[in-house]
Amino acid sequence: MLKALIFDVDGTLADTERDGHRVAFNRAFAAEGLAIAWGEALYGRLLSVTGGKERLSYFFTQVRPDLRPPGDLEAVVRRLHARKTALYTDLLKSEGVPLRPGIRRLLVEARARGLLLAVATTTTEDNLLPIWEALGPGARAWFSVVGAGDVVAAKKPAPDIYDYVLARLGLPAQDCLAFEDSENGLRAATGAGLCTIVTVTDYTKDQNFDEALLVVDHLGDPGKPLAHVRGVPFTRPQLDVDGLMQLTQHCGDR
Ligand code: XBP
Ligand code: MG
Q: What pTM was estimated for this model as a whole?
């Protein structure tokens, strides 16, 4: 019996990576006087590492050690990432939050139908403030559980953040559905036993989603029908609660 929906954030609730996080990282490099700028293609590769601090460490040790700033790497990364987080939240406040199609519609309907809502994200919790504002007044209270960033040591694709959220929901995985955008996220949700729906982004559309229940381009909105990419057949123009109830019957046969 479907009782809760668990949403990833970046790429799922909102399309935030290319024009949000990537731009904020570059502004942080500039603010620290570093001659580093992550282009769209490079950033797409760096997204294989989840977590901004982990991504920075990966870049300075595995990708461009020649650009590594002097001093203790962990301290450099923490300072850079704190600056980036402030610049990211400022950016979203000034530029607006690109909520993905169907997200607000489904969240409002799910609440009206008595489903619990939760978030399971690798991103830093501060980054969620502009998302709550974009969803509407009091939106933070829509979510029974928010699992974000460093609350778990092992980030996606490890299942830890989904295990954390399920434990606090007090629900078994089979009573919940996860929504993700990336292979790392799908692996994390699947690892926690969750049946998962994927809404692809430009960065993730060619990744491996074999274990997803359903892969679509987005959740659909009035006048903006979703496109089925792969997984169980689904012919409705929008993913709504009735459609989700219908889909969960296929969860066991993935
Ligand atoms: C995506 C991530 C995050 C963001 C950057 O999170 O991996 O690291 O790219 O945010 P998710 P931070 O898809 O799980 O929402 O710099 O705060 O990590
Ligand atoms: Mg994501």
A: 0.97
